Amino acid sequence: MGMCLGLATLSDANIERVLRDPPLVWCVVAPDDPEPFEEARAARQKPTLWSLLFGRRRQAAAAGGLELRPPEGAGTDLDKAWHGIHYLLTGTASAGDPPLDFLVAGGRAVGDIDVGYGPARVFTREQTRSACDALRAVTDEDLRARFDPADMLAKEIYPEIWDRAPEHDDTLGYLIENVQTLRRFLEQAVAQDLGMVVYLT
């Protein structure tokens, strides 16, 4: 199945809630599956004397999950193209200058909740706007010029398919198509004044 990168929109208010109460991230990452949230919540609610005496009301309030009001929670994924896109934006495997490194770095980690391949990361609406503005400045022609299969394989850019013959597997076209998906997602988030959650599953 491999590693796929997902993105979802979230308001700054709910970003703060998720950072304060990390199990809530499951309400964004897997909104149709309550089980991961319930398991994460249960794991964090091991009772202490203090919580038994004073914490029941707070825990009961938190147990209801995260209320997402449309258009919050709109999501997309970049399939397995995310690392190749990061390379086209930064020329690196895991570094690069912000904000164009946002697919693999930056934002704030949501506690220690492993949503697949480590914690999700959240970006405020201002950080999301910065990423969108930076991506607007990069044209598809720029991306095509930066496509270097030999360097990508040397840097172990996932999923290491970049030297396949274009007539059999158009890997550059695959990346450009997913960049378009990313552009649409960011533009929508900015238009709605929302931040985002970025995660690997």
Please provide a brief summary of the model.
By secondary structure, this protein is of the alpha+beta class. Helix content is 46%, strand content 10%.
Describe the largest sheet.
5 strands, antiparallel
Q: For the residues shown, what is the average pLDDT?
A: 92
Rounded to an integer, what's the Rg over CA atoms? Answer: 19 Å
Q: What is the count of helical runs?
A: 9
Helix content: 40-55%
Which class do the helix and strand fractions yield?
alpha+beta
Through-space gap between termini: 10 Å
Please trace the helix and strand order, writing H or E for each element: EHHHHEHEEHHHHE
Number of DSSP E strands:
5
Shape: globular
Uncertain stretches? 55-63
Order of strands across the biggest sheet? 2-1-5-4-3
Strand content: 5-15%
What does this structure look like?
The chain has 201 residues and is of the alpha+beta class. The protein contains nine helices and five strands. Strands 2-1-5-4-3 form a five-stranded antiparallel β-sheet. Residues 55-63 have low confidence and may be disordered.
Distinctive features:
9 helices, 5-stranded antiparallel beta sheet, alpha+beta, 5 strands, 201 residues, single chain
What's the SSE blueprint?
Layout (H helix, E strand, L loop, with lengths): L4 E6 L1 H9 L5 H4 L4 H11 L4 H14 L12 E3 L4 H9 L17 E2 L11 E3 L1 H12 L3 H7 L2 H6 L16 H21 L3 E6 L1
Antiparallel strand pairs: 1-2, 1-5, 3-4, 4-5
Helix pairs in contact: 6-9
